[in-house]
Design brief:
There is one protein chain. This protein is α+β, with helices and mostly antiparallel strands and about 400 residues long. The chain has two domains: about 60 residues; about 220 residues, Alpha-Beta Barrel (TIM Barrel), CATH 3.20.20. It has seven helices and 18 strands. Strand 2, helix 2 and strand 3 form a beta-alpha-beta unit. The relative contact order is 0.16. Zinc ion binds next to loops.
């Protein structure tokens, strides 16, 4: 056997074995009985801005620092990252490295443990806030809606908050996935990597009460990577529990702008006899109200107030603010929606899902056959090549 053929045989065997080992997690696949989506219904609206606390704080929950000698997509140390956010007067800046929680070893006003979960080729990622440990289990290649749901179920607990990051990026989360996915709290509608507001509307229109967050997803401190997208959270006091509580209830909003510079703030949102009223501290270039599937239902220009009577066909209503200045190109703010409920209490995106045992075992058997056929095909191909003189 020539040296080339020998190297080829060894290479093929190593590749096949690596693939089989890397795909072992697929034998844990679970197929759920996903219930049909139920749009928000009821005559009482849940208003996430019903009671606003003492102050708004500016936060970034998604950024990466250097890890594994720079192999994990971060270029700067945590100190360098925090210094940039301090210079833009952020109250809270999280480092959310891949499957790794940064310890509380840095002098900061707030510490909120965070990590970005995901070890797969499709950039199907989640942000996990307030876990003490990172759970690393993932499906490394293909993921259907059941795989995505299974990972969310593994990540979600009573004490943490889970968000979908950059949903439109690469394979991410399709519109069809978002009809069904449950057991997560937050939706990264805007980041430097992706604008996923259309997908957020898809989740909302199918009755999933998930709240918008804006994050830089910064991987370095270069100018224009930090301070582009951020989240404002309304809190009573400067504590981690207050931040988590208000993120969980949607008492927050997301902004895309420049160097973390706020252009406006919410004064209040009220609902009286189906009449939605939003008041701002200053006039905005445009205030746009959106309903199901992102349909524009009202616009006000050069105004600090907008009101609209919610129609029977609107299952939720949310606002966007648009401002331009010569120095910032534009600033756009996305408020959380008011949603229809039966009793006005904060709805939750939690569900206990039943497993379809037959489909689960059929899927696993199918995968075993796939691996077997692939192995046989590679051996056959190798034999053919080795026969060629
Ligand atoms: Zn990511």
């Amino acid at each position: 056997m020539s040296k080339f053929k020998k190297a080829l045989s060894i290479g093929a065997i190593i590749l096949t074995c690596s693939f089989i080992i890397a795909t072992l997690p697929y034998y844990k696949t679970v197929i759920y009985k996903l219930p049909a989506p139920k749009p928000f219904a009821g005559d009482t609206f849940y208003n996430p801005y019903q009671t606003t606390g003492k102050q708004w704080i500016k936060a970034n929950f998604h950024a990466h620092s250097i890890m594994h000698f720079g192999l994990a997509n971060g270029d700067n140390t945590p100190e360098e990252m925090f210094a940039v956010y301090d210079s833009m007067h952020y109250d809270l800046a999280c480092i959310s490295n891949y499957n790794n929680i940064l310890p509380n070893n840095y002098p900061k006003r707030y510490y909120l443990p965070a990590y970005e979960h995901g070890l797969n080729t499709g950039a199907i990622h989640r942000l996990v806030l307030n876990n003490q440990q990172a759970d690393r289990f993932d499906f490394p290649f293909y993921q259907n809606v059941h795989h995505k749901q299974q990972v969310l179920n593994l990540q979600k607990s009573e004490d943490n908050l889970v968000g979908l990051t950059h949903p439109v990026f690469k394979t991410g989360y399709s519109k069809s996935d978002l009809k069904y996915l449950t057991n997560y709290d937050l939706f990264e509608g805007i980041s430097v990597r992706a604008t996923s507001i259309e997908r957020w509307d898809e989740a909302l229109s199918h009755g999933h009460p998930v709240w918008v967050i804006g994050n830089d997803d910064a991987h370095n401190t270069r100018f224009g990577t930090c301070g582009v997208c951020w989240t404002m959270v309304n809190v009573d006091s400067l504590t981690k529990d207050e931040v988590l509580k208000n993120l969980k209830s949607g008492n927050s909003y997301a902004t895309r702008g420049w160097v973390g510079q706020e252009m406006n703030r919410i004064k209040g949102v009220s609902i009286d006899s189906n009449r939605y009223v939003l008041e701002l501290e200053k006039k905005s270039d445009s205030i746009i109200l959106k309903s199901d599937f992102g349909k524009t239902v009202a616009v006000a220009t050069h105004a600090n107030k907008i009101s609209y009577t919610i129609q029977e066909t609107d299952t939720y209503l949310r606002a966007e603010l648009f401002d331009t200045e010569p120095w910032n190109n534009y600033t756009k703010t996305y408020l959380n929606p008011v949603v229809r409920t039966v009793d006005g209490t904060c709805p939750s995106n939690r569900a206990t899902l039943e497993i379809n045992k037959t489909k689960t075992w059929l899927w696993r058997m199918g995968f075993l056959i796939f691996q077997f056929v692939l192995g046989v095909a590679i051996v056959y191909l190798l034999k053919m090549i080795l026969k060629i003189k």
